[in-house]
């Protein structure tokens, strides 16, 4: 005789003579709807669109533009790169400057990262991937 206290007759799945404790519960279909969620936080903002240029843009130096649900990315050789503006322009107003895959913007021109965190403006200065103090 084993040490188990399991009693098959009390198991919720029941037996032929005991259909189970949940057998009388009806599964009701939802009565409401989700409504319009197109403007809800986290809702998709649009499809992904990739534009490949036949040669690098003469001003920006990028060869790929990606329009994503969160913003626009500029790439050169599959790394973030743009010479005439931010390599990332967020739909929320954020901007991030990259050249050759590294955070970079001449501090005299302004910060390489412009964003917002908990309502406060965040500005970070980078030169060739290194955080610098202006």
Automatic annotation (TrEMBL):
Compositional bias per record (Basic and acidic residues), positions renumbered to this chain: 56-66
Polar residues: compositionally biased ranges: 18-27
UniProt-annotated stretches for the region Disordered: 1-94
Record-given protein name: Uncharacterized protein
The organism of origin for this protein: Microbacterium hominis
């Amino acid at each position: 005789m084993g040490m188990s206290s399991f009693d098959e007759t009390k198991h919720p799945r029941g037996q032929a003579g005991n259909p189970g404790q949940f057998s009388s519960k009806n599964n009701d279909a939802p009565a409401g709807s989700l409504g319009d969620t197109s403007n809800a936080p986290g809702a998709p903002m649009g499809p992904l669109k990739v534009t490949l240029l036949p040669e690098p843009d003469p001003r920006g130096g990028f060869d790929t533009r990606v329009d994503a649900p969160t913003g626009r990315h500029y790439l050169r050789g599959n790394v973030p790169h743009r010479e005439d503006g931010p390599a990332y322009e967020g739909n929320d107003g954020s901007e991030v400057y990259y050249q050759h895959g590294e955070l970079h913007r001449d501090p005299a021109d302004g910060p390489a990262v412009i964003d917002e965190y908990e309502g406060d403006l965040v500005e970070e200065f980078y030169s060739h991937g290194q955080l610098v103090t202006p």
